[in-house]
Amino acid sequence: MLLAKTLALLGATVLARAASNLDALARDVSRVESIREIKDVQRSFAQLAQFGRWNSMASLFSSNGTLMWGNATAHGPAAVETWLRTDAGKMDGIQPGSLDTIVMENPLVNMAADGQTAKTRWNGLRFQGDGVGGTRIQGGIYENEYVRTEEGWRISLLRYYAMYEGPYFPGFRNVGGRSIPVITYHFTPEDSGIPIPPAVGEASRTNVSVEGLERRIARMNDEDDVRNLMHAHGYYVDRRMWTDVVDLHTTNTTVRVTNGANYTGLAGVRRALERMGPEGLTKGINNDHLIFDMIVDVHPDGKTAIARGSEVAMIGNANNRTASWEFNVFRNHFVKEDGLWKVQTIETTPLIVADYYKGWGTGGLKPANTYIPPFLDATGLRAKAIKQVGIGKVTRSDLEDLQRRLQRAAAYDGAENQSHAYGYFLDDIDCARMGALFAKRGHKASPFAGFFITPERVAQACFASYGTNRSALRSGISFHWRPQPVVLVSEDGRSATLRARLLQPSTAVNKSGSFNSAIYHDQMVLEDGKWRLWSVTIDEFYWQSSSWEGGWSDVKPRNESAPDPEPASWTKKYPPDLSIAAVGDRESTFRGGSGRYIEWPEIQRMWWQYRNPVSGRVPEYYWPGCVPCKAIPDWALEANGYQEPTTGPSMGNGTAVNR
Ligand SMILES: *[C@@H]1O[C@H](CO)[C@@H](O)[C@H](O)[C@H]1NC(C)=O
Ligand SMILES: *[C@@H]1O[C@H](CO)[C@@H](O)[C@H](O)[C@H]1NC(C)=O
Ligand SMILES: *[C@@H]1O[C@H](CO)[C@@H](O)[C@H](O)[C@H]1NC(C)=O
Ligand SMILES: *[C@@H]1O[C@H](CO)[C@@H](O)[C@H](O)[C@H]1NC(C)=O
Ligand SMILES: *[C@@H]1O[C@H](CO)[C@@H](O)[C@H](O)[C@H]1NC(C)=O
Ligand SMILES: *[C@@H]1O[C@H](CO)[C@@H](O)[C@H](O)[C@H]1NC(C)=O
Ligand SMILES: *[C@@H]1O[C@H](CO)[C@@H](O)[C@H](O)[C@H]1NC(C)=O
Ligand SMILES: *[C@@H]1O[C@H](CO)[C@@H](O)[C@H](O)[C@H]1NC(C)=O
Ligand SMILES: *[C@@H]1O[C@H](CO)[C@@H](O)[C@H](O)[C@H]1NC(C)=O
Ligand SMILES: *[C@@H]1O[C@H](CO)[C@@H](O)[C@H](O)[C@H]1NC(C)=O
Ligand SMILES: *[C@@H]1O[C@H](CO)[C@@H](O)[C@H](O)[C@H]1NC(C)=O
């Protein structure tokens, strides 16, 4: 019996060690909730900035909290508020036509063993404009600290390391025109996969009931389903897969555009989508709408949910060299029907639409927005909502099933953590630490080359590709942002499949940085109590910018009579365990693959590890499981004692729904 086997394995691995009683389980639940609240507090900071809510941003700090932004420092909420207001000036999201979109992504959360403090690392971007011609773009890394207070988690230190900045014209480059140092990590590869450190001592007595804990755990499982639904929705929009988008909606659905029209019913959703163009991408069309800083609030009854976040669209048409930016806020509603989450309402508030070649400095092409979509209260969001009364009776099997479900929630955070650790080490081309994130039998695709298996060979391939003598000071960096994850956790919570974007901002000393886009297809496992990377494949690129000035729409089709590019030349010295070409059809159109190479502005095939999460519709290019696993079945999760996560519709408890 699968479940019995699962439970036996769980005993050893849940949250580093299984809770032996209700009080211990309550402590573990509160810790997973804390990880999420910390992320949401920081996302609130970003969302509030978009509308110049300096006072509310400052109230996210503890009473003695500190903000360090580049070389500026402010102590205490009042000083933080003043600094934020002064620094933004007229680029505050309040002046008509102004913009202040802060994006903080790729959270890596580290909680102290006593559960009272935490540290995080984030990538940051900030897009600003004053509506009368002034613009500013800032990018860097945050290393922040948090403290648990009576009112919930608060920021005790927000420390922003400014790495690149500049006005829209001529674009951004390294701060001060200098090379950029490595920003010290608060974590090591060894601890990056430990979901929650083992708690110290006996859990304190609580009055929680089994029912109360069950609802809090279900709420986190629901949150994960809603996150996946919204992120999957976003990927379908990018590819103009309108039929799949419509599948995610409930029948009485509405799409509402602030200062625009309402569209009702499934036919209405399709009409709303077709404003962007017909179904499917054709040559030269980029329709990327990136989702950032989403907070999900599941109603305590577990039947409805709200998600609020930012959307930054990078869209264009390379056929006539047109391109634009769109900055939107979304506040969407979801409903659970027959155990499956569906989209009830899409509510989009456009802030700025701007021609790429003119920028957003003068407020863009549309009249200024004045509507502020209501914020979600991120502090104490989870704990406050569910009253805990009475001491329920608890049997051993209740506890085990609750632990399994909690483990699935912790798995979402653990897999995401590991994904971002990978991105940060790769930004710094720290090959040794990047390799150490892999499982003993983990494998990674090196771009344009092939797959390498074991942490040692993954690291060696990185050295072979980038060289061993990397300077601690870099004149330029290509970042590896991995936002918008769709994380499919296995029923037992010991393995996960993760899809993420690669968003690649770059910066250099004396040349404007630009953006590229690709897709990661990964799997993660819990090995010896730590999350590790099992399989990492990068499909790149879906679009690339020719330069900052040209953007993603100023690209020429490649010369059809020129030969396809060769695999990376370093593979002659350090050959992969499985070449890109040997993977077969799946990788055939990427550089080094066995077929005809496809390059933007031609539309690269997009692959999916999952079917439509509501209808179960099979995508045109469907590849469940790890990418090299059809060529080498021994590399599959199931061949190594792990479950293959469900690839179609599933309930919050991880059980597949047959569709
Ligand atoms: C800041 O306040 C917290 C309680 O909120 C306290 O534990 C900590 O010692 C204080 N830190 C400093 C530097 O005053
Ligand atoms: C602080 O940083 C800003 C922006 O990078 C710069 O303009 C300013 O000169 C710096 N101030 C000091 C005291 O270094
Ligand atoms: C993420 O990684 C950090 C740093 O190593 C680790 O301490 C933390 O527990 C991890 N968090 C999660 C949610 O996995
Ligand atoms: C549990 O409930 C009892 C009776 O209502 C109360 O006296 C006690 O303080 C509560 N304990 C905790 C830890 O909340
Ligand atoms: C739409 O349907 C859902 C579930 O079937 C229901 O809860 C909701 O009230 C309906 N909404 C409208 C606007 O009819
Ligand atoms: C769209 O629906 C909202 C909420 O029902 C309403 O306030 C608004 O006036 C409608 N907009 C249009 C253009 O009909
Ligand atoms: C570029 O092409 C799109 C349609 O593909 C069209 O809507 C737009 O008007 C064109 N723009 C220019 C400047 O030609
Ligand atoms: C590494 O590079 C630096 C600067 O280019 C050079 O001085 C040094 O000799 C190099 N070290 C090795 C081991 O190649
Ligand atoms: C930028 O710097 C590089 C070396 O750091 C130099 O080779 C190049 O000429 C510089 N370009 C410009 C436009 O200054
Ligand atoms: C295209 O590639 C072919 C073969 O390499 C070459 O002969 C031809 O000159 C190229 N055409 C252009 C426009 O670069
Ligand atoms: C998950 O929930 C469904 C519906 O309540 C139930 O039929 C199924 O047995 C559950 N699966 C597990 C593994 O508990």
Automatic annotation (TrEMBL):
Per UniProt, the keywords (alphabetical) are: Signal
| Source superkingdom | Eukaryota
Q: Which SUPFAM superfamilies match?
A: NTF2-like
The signal peptide stretch is: 1-18
Chain spans, region Disordered? 553-573
Where does the SnoaL-like domain lie? Answer: 31-158, 219-345, 410-536
Name of the protein described by the UniProt record? SnoaL-like domain-containing protein
The species this protein was found in: Trematosphaeria pertusa
